[in-house]
Amino acid sequence: MSDDTIRLVTIGRMIRRRRRVLIILAVLGALVGYGTSLLFPPRYTTSAAVLLPGAWEERELLTQTQIATSSVVIDRAAATLGWSGGGELRGRVSAKAADGNIIKISGTADTPERAQQLSDQVAQQFVAFAARIAGDSTDPEAAARPEELRQLVVRTSRRITELADAADPGSSVESVQTRTELAKLRTTLQEAVNKLDQADPAAVKADMVVMGPAARPEGEAPPTRTQFIVAGALVFFLLAVVGHLTAARMSRRLRTEPEITAALGSALLGTVDVPGERPVRRAEGRGTRDRIRRLLGVDVRWDVPTPRTSGDEADRRIRYRRVCARLREQVPAPRRLLVVVPDGDEIALRAAGRLVTEAESDSSPSSSSGEYPVLRMVAVPVSRPLVPDRDTEAGALVVLSAGSWTAAELAGLAEACADAGHEVVGIVVAGTVRARPPRSAGPSPDEAAPALAVRGHATGGPV
C-alpha cells in the first residue's frame, strides 16, 4: 500500500475490518466530549435592540457599540440587578451595529431568565448613559456658548427690524433695496438658529429607545453538550482512520513477488492458495494481550486486498503438487528439505502444512524422477531467527505470505538459514482465497494426479 493511491475502497475495507476498534474509539471520544462539556456549563444568549434615530456614520455607530459594552454601563446593570462580578459580566455582553441604525446588545448567562434580564438591563443602562453624555458637559463655558449665540441672534434680529422700520418709508429704489437686504439677513439668521437647534447632540441622543424586551432563549448557545459529544466522537474516529492510513502508507512490508525473492536471494517456485478463514488460535497465543486484540478485532490484517475467488479443492491441490514436482526436479537425492515458516504467519503455516501433506501422499512413485521430497516444517521467529542445524536436509524451502514481512526481516531469515548450513533452494508464496463449493462432477484429484505430475515435469516456472 505504500506505493498505491489511497482510494475509497481502501477506506471502506479498513472501516469494515476495523469496525470494532473504530466504534470503541468513537465511544471513547464521545465520553471525552461529555467530560469536556462538564467544564463548560450551559450558556443561554439573547439580544435586545436599541434604535438610534437620525443620520449616523459608521464610526459613530462603532463608538456607540463601545459605549454599550463599557465598564460603566455593565457595572450599573450589575448593580441594578443585584449581581456581583461586573468584571465577569463584561465577557458575557457584546454589541454590534445592525442595519437601520440599530444596535443589538447580546447577553449570555447560565439560565434563560438571567440572560434575558442581563440583555434588557444593559440596553436600558446604555440608553440612559448615552442620554447623559449627550445632555451633560464638563465645560460650563462651552455649554453656555450656544445659548449666548441664540440671545445674540435674537437681539440682532430685533435690531434689523428697527433698522428696517427706521429706513426711508418712501418708495425709492434705495429704500426698497435696503429693506429687502435687511429682511434677507433676518431670514438667514433665523435659519442658522434652526440648524443649530437641529444639530444639538442632546436633542438627538435623548431620542434613543429600546425596541422592546429581549426574547427568552429557548435553547443553549453553541457549543452545546450534544455538540461536544458528537465532536469528540467524530474527532476520535477521524484520527483513528488517519492513523490507520498513515501506518499503512508508511509500512515497509514486501507485497510483490520480485521484492520477496530479492530479499531472500532465491527463486520463486510457485504460489499456493489457502482458503480464507479465521486464523487458528495456538496455545501460546491465549494471553491477555491476544484476547484483547481478538476483542478489538485488530488480530486480522486490514490492509491486504479482499481475497479473490479461487477454484475448488482440486484446483488448489494442483498448485501444491506442481510445487512438489519442481522441488523433485531441483533437489538432488536424498530429497529432504527443511520447510522454514516465519512464526506468526498463520497463512504460511497452513500452506506449509498442506505442502508437507501433499509431499507425503506422493501418488506417482513410478515416475522417472522418483518420489516427492521429504519435507520437515519448522516455525522460526523473525525477531531472533534461529534455524536448526543441517542434518540430512539438502536445503531449506521458505514458505511465507505476501505483505507480512519487511526486507530486513526476510534478510535475517535467509542469514539464519545460511548460518545453520541450509541453502535456500526456493520460495513459496501463500495467499488467501475465497473457496468455491466443491464441483458436482468431474474427475477426482487422485485420478488427475498422474497427469499433473507429468505436467509438473514440463513446467519449471512459478505458477
Automatic annotation (TrEMBL):
Keywords: Cell membrane, Membrane, Transmembrane, Transmembrane helix. Residues 4-63 form the Polysaccharide chain length determinant N-terminal domain. It comes from the Bacteria. It comes from Streptomyces venetus. The keyword Transit peptide does not apply. The chain crosses the membrane at residues 21-40, 228-247. This is Wzz/FepE/Etk N-terminal domain-containing protein. It is a multi-pass membrane protein. It is found in: Cell membrane. Belongs to the CpsC/CapA family. Residues 437-463 are annotated as: Disordered.
